[in-house]
Amino acid sequence: MRLTCPPCGEIFTADNEDALVAMAVEHARKLHDMNLLEEYRPDEFRALVRRENESYWARIAHLIPDGQLKTILDEKLCEREREIVSYVVHGFANREIATRLCISQRTVSTHLVNIYEKLNVHSRAELAAMVRATDRIIEAALRGKTSQEYGPFVHINNPKTR
């Protein structure tokens, strides 16, 4: 299952609905300072998740031959590094990241040096651009075959109609 975060466009995947809902709720709490379960009734939020998943996997099955969808972040970074990347992409400073993760600023800096080296990037902006591009590769591939809107993307067949 998958879900796109409406405020930031980050894409979550999980094996089941409960795990996906938990990931989305935690993401919104940590990075957007909002409680999704106060914004939506639980059944309403689950319906949103189901709607997004109804046709998604059928449309991309041919793009994932072995059934596993992994990004460069999954392949090269450990879980803590991916967590730090999420905070960086959402604009948090090292001090804020350290406070939220209960680690020192020096540890955050060390993780960032390792992340930059593993991903061959040289700045926070470059890191954020890489993550955003990675999150949207499949979405962009699908965009060419349909006029339906998905997440933060806008499909343009005829620019004059916008």
List keywords for this structure.
162 residues; two-stranded antiparallel sheet; 9 helices; 59% helix
In short:
By secondary structure, the protein is mainly alpha-helical.
Strand adjacency order, main sheet: 1-2
* Overall average residue pLDDT: 77
Percentage of residues assigned to helices = 55-70%
Given helix and strand content, the structural type is mainly alpha
The low-confidence parts are 146-162
Summarize the biggest pleated sheet. 2 strands, antiparallel
- Helix and strand string, N-terminal first? EEHHHHHHHHH
Computed CA radius of gyration, to the nearest angstrom: 17 Å
Q: How many β-strands, per DSSP?
A: 2
Count the DSSP helices: 9
Tertiary shape: globular
Structure, described:
This protein is mainly alpha-helical and 162 residues long. The model is unreliable at 146-162 (pLDDT under 50). It has helices spanning 17-32, 36-39, 42-53, 56-60, 72-76, 79-89, 94-101, 105-119, 124-143; strands at 2-4, 11-13. It has a two-stranded antiparallel ribbon.
SSE blueprint:
Elements: E1 2-4, E2 11-13, H1 17-32, H2 36-39, H3 42-53, H4 56-60, H5 72-76, H6 79-89, H7 94-101, H8 105-119, H9 124-143
Antiparallel strand pairs: 1-2
Helix pairs in contact: 6-8, 7-8
